[in-house]
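Two proteins were folded this term; both appear here.
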Amino acid sequence: MQLARTYGRPTLFSRHGMVAAAHPLAAQAGARILMQGGNAFDAAVATAAALNVVEPFMSGLAGFGLATVWVASEQRIRVLDFAPPMPASFPVGRYTSRFELERGPRAASTPGNLAGWCELLSRYGSKSLPDVFAPAITLARDGFALSDFGVDEINEQVPLLEPWPELHAALVRNYLPDGMPVKLGSIVAQSDLAQTLAEISESGPEYLYGGKLGRRIVDYLATLGGSLTLDDVIAVKPHWFDPLTVSYRGLELHVPAQQCGGFQFALTLKILEAFDLGRLPKDGADHLDTVYRAIRLAAGERIARGNPGPDQAAGGMSDATIARLRQRVSDGRPITGPTEQWMPQDRADPGHTTSFSIADAEGNLVCMTQSLGSPFGSGVVVPGTGVCLNNHLHWADVQPGSPNLAKPGDALPVTMAPSIATRGSRPVLALGTPGSYGIPQTQAQAYVQHIEFGLPLQQAIEAPRSRLWDGRFIQAENRIAPQTIAELKRRGHEIEILDTGWTMLCGGMQAVALDPVTGVMTGGADPRRDGYVIGL
């Protein structure tokens, strides 16, 4: 008897290790380290470095990120923050709109990813830096064949940098030696990056943070008009924090406490916990209306608090606040409000980020989200290094009069929310996604599908999702029923149906679930990206 399949990918299981990443070659790099006796922390660094090669438009060693981890030997959750603050050299008052910092040398902030990778490895890993960088170095030196997703990203994004001729030419030289456009199966080799990774593996993170690579980055930015200094680069230090923890349907959700994305995600779930969504028709108007309303209200609270620190985040989770927001969800009146920053923003999604989740046989669990900011970050590739710099400053609030006006040394608003859930003090789920200000939105939607409606992890990731924007505007994947959309519009939502059932506007989620009784690991990978799961 053949059973009907209602989802796109099979559910994958393992008992010895699991890697879920946004590209199969990156998942393979992490799995290779696990098979060589490494743990989840070793595999995370190998996966992150490989993503630098095979998703150069999404993340890299000069990007920034966060990791939420379960450390089996310590039986606790920790958060590693390697998203550096505003540089001390940032010229306050020079800019009046974040779009002045979208591209180019002025948008580049200090590189954080390499520092985070090396801290994770030195603190909890069991392998050496040359060991875990080896897969990425091989991929960069030998080259890899582009998939459909890589072809689409490069052919769409590289031409957008043509207004910056010097930056555009450097991108083409580094990634497209045969010129544009690329096609399925085109080989991308990055010999300069391979050499840079090899030198880092021999010299350690100091090669960037105060060493030769750091000086090359700063000197090159100076020739283009950038303001980053070597002191800014040397000052980069990853930090360990306790997570923000909230209860939800018998789970404890753990997210970064000091970043705004985790706060919004956690607050959304706390609002929704009062509503028995599981008894409603799945993907029906009542289900989606309730979730959309909670997401928009939580976004408003996040924006009102700027980039809440741990104390502010805890205050934003007070019983009185949550009761007020639940009442607003229930009253039925349309909700109009921002989802991005303090002032209304143009509807665009410049965020290009990647997230992966890894579990090992020792019981460790890692969820890491890292980014360059926009596609190819600032667009600045440092000659001779293969290193593409981030545009982290594009997320700084520079709008005059804003209560969240960015200043040197301030924590930048980071919407990433890598999460781990525990049940009865045992880790059960690692889940993260890219998506800029949509990250806490799409993670909440997937949680509802998995926890409230009981969908297996892969199906929960594949379920139709939506992206909310400022005002009442929503973009929805076209797998939501037309009659549901009509009813949502009647209730005040301004909905645009996208011409696709799968859009990166709604993230690219990678997750690993653990059964604490059997030890079985379940992987989930998002078809909205080149997501791939490898189990051991």
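Next, the second protein.
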Amino acid sequence: MTTKFTRRRILQTGVAAAALTAVPQVGWAADPVVKLRILETTDLHVNILPYDYYRDAADDTVGLARTAAIVKAARSEAKNSLLFDNGDLIQGSPLGDFVAYRRGMKKGDVHPMVAAMNTLDYDCGTLGNHEFNYGLDFLQNSLGAAKFPLVCANVIKADGTTLQKPWLVLDRDVVDEAGATHKLKVGVIGFLPPQIVQWDKGHLDGKATTIDIVDAAEKHVPDMKKAGADIVVALCHSGIAGGDRKGGEENAALHLAKVDGIDVILTGHQHLTFPGGKEFSNIPGVDAKAGTLHGKPAVMAGFWGSHLGQVDLDLTKDGSRWKVAGFKTEARPIYDRVDRKVVPKVASEAAVIAAVQADHDATLKYVREPVGTTAVPIHSYYSLVADDASVKLVAEAQAWYVADLLKTTPHKDLPLLSAAAPFKAGGRGGPNYFTEIKKGPLAIKDMADIYIYPNTIRAVKVTGAQVREWLERSAGIYNQIDVAKGGEQDIINAKFPAYNFDVIAGVQYKIDPTQASRYDNDGKLVAPDAHRIKDLTYNGKAVADDQVFVVATNNYRAGGGGNFPGADGTTIILDAPDLTRDAIMRFIIERKEVSPKADGSWALVTPPANVTATFLTGPNAAGYQPSGIKVEKMGDAPEGFVKYRIVA
């Protein structure tokens, strides 16, 4: 018989807990074993229903409504369970934008993400970095109606206190394998990337700062133990990465696992799944098959509701307290892919649908509002291997916006460049995760499709040398072609996020992937003698190292996001209040019709004849041809992708 936990008081930070003592009961086993199932959602990003607002079509690969069905099944299989969320809740889909920019959030309002989660009886949650994209007031108003507590130990307000309670202890009744009831105290602590002070500097300056994840854990975990916590679960909105700890890591889950007293780590932020995932192979301290970080159970539940993370613990008594004696981890998907088609494993939960139906309908009306027309199709199927019109539209709109704001400043006569990246370029997002807009009307949903993040516009003043290094950092998206080896070689570095592949419009250049990358995936200079950027020119002349430029970009990049040379927060000359996608919208409204095209400002150096350079894209790429490069379809690839080769 399945027994539901009895919710008891939560021991708040700083409140002394009474010593836990064993109370003899009838039927008490000599060596009781409690099986506890810990469940995780993470990186939901306001994906509640199985619907893609960008394509304005159903999508069986996303949605908390589907994850909720897996939650229901997982709970039915276990005597004891806890459900946690690992952050990035209120930003990330047009539904989130509708609430932020059209509907608004006053104190006392219920955010649709929270309304949906309230139907699932969560035990606790933490904050993600994207919670701060709309400001602290919006954050607090959005999460204020949550029927579950939130913890976060490494965001500190100006008065020295934490923005949320750093930790708490859940006091629960549990049933052992013999049917006897016991008391269990579960400590829960939360963390997020300390880089939010750079990424959302405009919202946090003077209001909040951050501390290192591991430092925060070492400060608070001993207090949790003093408060009686039998086991400690870390809600770590931070990913898994190797390397030595230096402090301030964005992806610090592996380092966190070394903190004494933490028993389970729920991870996120990277939009990957763990256990599993080739991205985590060969990292010392990580067992991607068993799902452990330095021997401790860990899980990462994908993104947008694609998976439910599950950690099954066997707990036994160690004196007066419980300890972890065994475990198993897995990430349970909401769909399968059979014969290249998505097959849902579960149906949506009716309660979740009902909780957000009105906001869903209002969002559909909102995103369908027209703003202009395009004379040509706009797509991103070849954006990682060729100059691309969808990226150039963003760059052109940014430059138009910045030029207007700089025309009365001392910077008005400096050469103006514009940096933009392809956000929807397949990868972990899947074979449908590409921008594709038909010729004809453009609606608000298309603005969000072209530019998916709520970034604001900034401009930086940099030198020609910094422009070159900026592009070298971007060129890390390519694997090095081994000319001596020859044969078929995948040209795209799957671990390099597409949003860090900046194209800089206004200069002309070539990229040679036969050379080593100067920078690693984290932006560290690793090959100082390597140079992939060739023939860098401005107005037909070679760019000089001491030449001065203004580069239009976004707040994430200008503030240090991605660790790009020339973009560390110190070179900013313009901090604009408007969203990039709003600037794109204004640009289109003013022109009424746009006709974006790739102008060949950059190109890959043609691979040598003995190398077949390949890349993956979506099935619909067959309907388009890239500009400035010849490609040829080779055949189907796993997970619904299609393989192409670059033709010499």
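The longest strand covers residues 321-333. The chain has two domains: 7-18+30-361, 371-646. These notes refer to the second protein only.
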